Amino acid sequence: MFTGQYDVKTINFGRETEKADLREFLAGEDLSLDGDIDYAVCLFEGDRIIASGCAASNVLKCIAVAAPYQGQQLTNRIMSLLRIRAYHEGFPGLFLFTKDINEAVFRDLGFFPLARAPGVILMEDKEEGWRRYLEELNIPEGERGTSAALVMNCNPFTLGHRYLVEMACRENDRVHLFLVKENLSVFPYDVRLKLVREGTADLDNLSIHEGRDYIISHATFPTYFIKEKKVINESHARIDLDIFSRLIAPELGIVRRYVGEEPYCPVTSLYNRIMEEMLPGRGIEVVTIPRKEAAGGAVSATKVRKALAEEDWDTLEGWVPPTTLRFLQSEDGRRIGNLIRKHQEESE
After folding, report:
1. Greatest alpha-carbon span in the chain
2. β-strands 39-45, 254-260: how paired?
3. Kindly report the CA angle at 138 between 248 and 175, in degrees rounded to 5?
4. Is residue 260 classed exposed, middle or buried when 0-12, 13-18 and 19+ CB atoms within 10 A define those classes?
5. First vs last Cα of the chain: how many Å apart?
6. Is 162 in contact with 199 (CB distance < 8 Å)?
7. Residue 76 to residues 43, 52, 100, 110, Cα–Cα distance (Å)
8. DSSP category for residue 202
């Protein structure tokens, strides 16, 4: 019988036994230990986990209480511990992934529903935080008419990206380019933003925005950032596209979304397929553009990173805009190339 006494312990992911115990507990609760989780706190009765709470940056997940211990306010305790950690980490807001049957529990704890997919719900601790995000973009009223959108990572900005943006700008009065904000790419966000701006400076009808938490982020589409493990979660894609089509696109008058063909990455390919399924029914045309061809085949950021690691400047000249090439040949660009080469050597 539970006496109400328990111990609090932060899981050390460097210790395989602790990680395995958490994984086993979550499996018993029909949950999995996602590859992007960077923090976990558990309540123990003796040496047994009775409740857990995990986080991937500012996204809370894997919050569970074993059946015999439910109704003891343990979820509240776990949430308090996760909020304390978020405060010390300086996160301005929190998101939460949970099963849809738990919506009422987390509403009572100060979270609001943001988007849904079959069986799951994404919640946040700020009501209509997405609206504040759009307000902070400071988009002039004159740019809120019928428009198109692109969502890109640009790791780094290539002639393939330029081709896609140019096509969208040629076919629409206004184009909104949302650049993925998460700083988990080889090229840091500020560098990617600089290269996109420099590489599209001549396109007068293009507006470039930070993607932030509401467009392909750890909150809306975490699978994107753990795709090297080939983890594909259709629910994540549906949640991200639900937010885009239901909340963001109507506010900006977006009626088209442009994407490039994706024959290589299974995560992006799945995302594009679900996009083609969901968006037309919500008044948004999906325009798929074939990849730009160059010497050596279709241009891709993956090929560009490989060529950079090999310092193959002749090939890079045909795959990236002059502005990107200048950066790649700079001291900072060569440093990134060295990091890529080191990672490749360690992976072999």
Report:
1. 72
2. unpaired
3. 55
4. buried
5. 53
6. yes
7. 12, 11, 18, 11
8. T
Distance CA 138, CA 135 (A): 6
With H, G, I as helix, E, B as strand and everything else as coil, classify residue 115.
strand
Calpha distance 123→116 (Å, rounded) = 9
* pLDDT tens, position by position, 181-240: 877 779 999 999 999 999 999 999 999 999 888 998 877 776 655 544 445 578 888 999
Token pair for residue 326?
Answer: 């200048």
Residue 140: band (very low, low, confident or very high) from pLDDT cuts 50, 70, 90? confident
CA-nearest of 46, 6, 42, 4 to 24 is: 42
- Separation of alpha carbons 36 and 186, rounded Å: 17
336, two tokens:
């990134």
Which helix or strand (DSSP H or E) is residue 44 part of? Answer: strand 39-45
Per DSSP, the residues of 329-345 read TSHHHHHHHHHHHHHHH
Sketch out the chain's domains with CATH numbers: 7-127 (3.40.630.30), 142-347 (3.40.50.620)
Tokens, residue 56: 């991937």
91-119 residues labelled b (16+ CB within 10 A) or e (exposed):
beebbbbbeeebbeebeebebeebbbbee
Token digits of residue 281? 């029914």
